[in-house]
Amino acid sequence: MLLEVVCMHQIQNYVNGVFVDGVTLFDDVNPVDGSIVGQVHEADALLVDQAVQAARNALNGPWGASTVRERCDLMRRVANRIEERFDDLVAAEVADTGKPEKHAREVDVARGIANFRSFAETVAATGQVSFMTELGNGGSALNYAVDKPLGVVAVVVPWNLPLLLLTWKVAPALACGNAVVVKPSEETPGSATLLAEIMQEAGVPAGVYNVVHGFGQGSAGEFLTSHPEIDGVTFTGSTATGSGIMRAVAPRVRPVSFELGGKNAALVFADADLDLTIDGLSRSVFANTGQVCLCTERVYVERPVFDEVVERLAAHAQDLVLGRPGAAGTTTGPLISLAHREKVLGYYRMAEDSGAKVVVGGGIPAVADDLTGGSWIEPTVWTGLTNLDRVMRDEIFGPVASVVPFDSEDEAVRLANDTDYGLAASTWTTDLSRGHRVAQRMNVGMSWVNTWFLRDLRSPFGGMGLSGIGREGGQRSLDFYTESTNVCVKL
Ligand code: NAD
Ligand code: 6OD
């Protein structure tokens, strides 16, 4: 009998500039068809500790004495190297998430490059503040602040936009002179590991960028965030996990930056340009199979255009093409996993139990035989729900929106703000005064008018309420990734 030896793709940890095995292995699953992408080496507590020590040693070595100019040049080299390895990163992102290749190219990997370039520019252009203090006796004092790196930063990120969200944090952290230990999602270990190769190739010193793989509780995530020698945690993920991380860092009072979940609203006024609105609104509901923290799950529509918006949004949902990431015409991938599909389907059932009318979708689609092992789900539109229903309050994180009518601007604002979350909102109107007015009344971190997910990386990004703590982006990122010492000199 011929024995076939299958060599699985191995996804290792990266500690102190070296790729290392973990103590146990778990499968990296492709959600398109359930096939195995590779085997991931899970880090135990000892390896996580070695990664934290490697980061500390890097800070105590030449990296700790590096200049702003050296670091910003290095970040630009990393960006250039990502550009050279663009296709490899697209392949890793697509294999792990099943998202359309076009999305991986135009959003995930493109933003990986932009994140390094943007933060190199921001850090290079940032100076110190100083104040000349006038004293009562005619004397004076000079106050100036000196910024220092925060130190060893734990970076914990989710699976929906893996490289985008990772580099959004790693780029400013390194440009500010920190050393990082990254814990990517167990669902998407590929791009963070490839980025380690890129860091090596670009000349990032050993210990400055470390990657540990694994899960949350009882695994690398918990070992990292509860490690006594980390100096701060920057986390993107669910509100429940954020709450657990707060408890983990509480004994040593470490700073946290949290970008958490959302239950985002869109407000469509009767005067909106409906072609532009349906296009933007559909993107905001269905992009990345609804797995973007900024995605719209509640759509409030002024009554005169309610029926038309429902009909056109549903038509758009029906036109989406579910398919393999690289197939021509594919617009929509699967959910990240069968477990996540179970959660989303639970909300589909709950909506029907609450009396929702399912305008389109509502279940598992029929797919080709070779895709039946994947986590496919139908893009869905509901009407007939109110803010009292649980599906209108919980974050679902799938390709689904509930459309509800309103009769006045005040009512629309009240309905949109009636949530425990506070991440994002979008207002659709041709009345720009109303656009400004309503956008400013939204209790969210990001309020868009006639667009959605249009980003300027210098602007503040984050959420209120259950959606997070703090802001990152431009100067706000620098505030988190640095500590300041104010020097006061009596003259
Ligand atoms: P998650 O919270 O389950 O996991 C995120 C990361 O935390 C993963 O790496 C996971 O392994 C790790 N983790 C889990 N438990 C942990 C623990 N006890 N200690 C330390 N680490 C732990 O989130 P997810 O399912 O990967 O991502 C989806 C969620 O992320 C959604 O709620 C979404 O809204 C949110 N999200 C928010 C933003 C934002 O910018 N606000 C962006 C993307 C995703
Ligand atoms: O655009 C960004 O910088 C960002 N943090 C996006 C988050 C998307 C959430 O899924």
What is the overall number of helices?
14
Bound molecules: nicotinamide-adenine-dinucleotide, (2E,4E)-2-amino-6-oxohexa-2,4-dienoic acid
Low-pLDDT residue intervals, each spanning 5 or more residues: 1-5
Q: Based on helices, strands and strand pairing, what is the structural class?
A: alpha/beta
Radius of gyration: 24 Å
According to DSSP, the number of beta strands is 23
Summarize the structure in words.
The chain has 14 helices and 23 strands. It is of the alpha/beta class. Helix 3 (86-97) crosses helix 4 (101-124). The longest helix has 24 residues, at 101-124. The chain binds nicotinamide-adenine-dinucleotide and (2E,4E)-2-amino-6-oxohexa-2,4-dienoic acid (6OD). Nicotinamide-adenine-dinucleotide (NAD) is lined by residues 156-160, 165, 183, 185-186, 215-217, 221-222, 225, 236-238, 241, 244-245, 259-262, 293, 395, 397, 423, 463, 468. The site of nicotinamide-adenine-dinucleotide has 31 residues, from helix 7 and helix 8.
Annotate the secondary structure layout.
Layout: E1 10-11, E2 13-15, E3 18-20, E4 24-29, E5 36-42, H1 45-60, H2 68-84, H3 86-97, H4 101-124, E6 130-134, E7 140-149, E8 152-156, H5 162-175, E9 179-183, H6 190-202, E10 209-211, H7 220-225, E11 232-236, H8 239-249, E12 256-259, E13 264-268, H9 274-286, E14 296-302, H10 306-319, H11 338-353, E15 357-360, E16 380-383, E17 400-406, H12 409-417, E18 424-428, H13 432-441, E19 446-449, E20 461-462, E21 468-469, E22 471-472, H14 474-481, E23 482-490
Parallel strand pairs: 1-5, 8-9, 8-11, 9-10, 11-12, 13-14, 13-18, 14-17, 16-17, 18-19
Antiparallel strand pairs: 2-3, 4-5, 6-7, 7-23, 12-21, 15-16, 20-22
Helix pairs in contact: 2-4, 2-6, 3-4, 3-6, 4-5, 9-10
This protein binds nicotinamide-adenine-dinucleotide and (2E,4E)-2-amino-6-oxohexa-2,4-dienoic acid.
Residues 160-161, 165, 168, 259, 292-294, 455, 461 line the site of (2E,4E)-2-amino-6-oxohexa-2,4-dienoic acid.
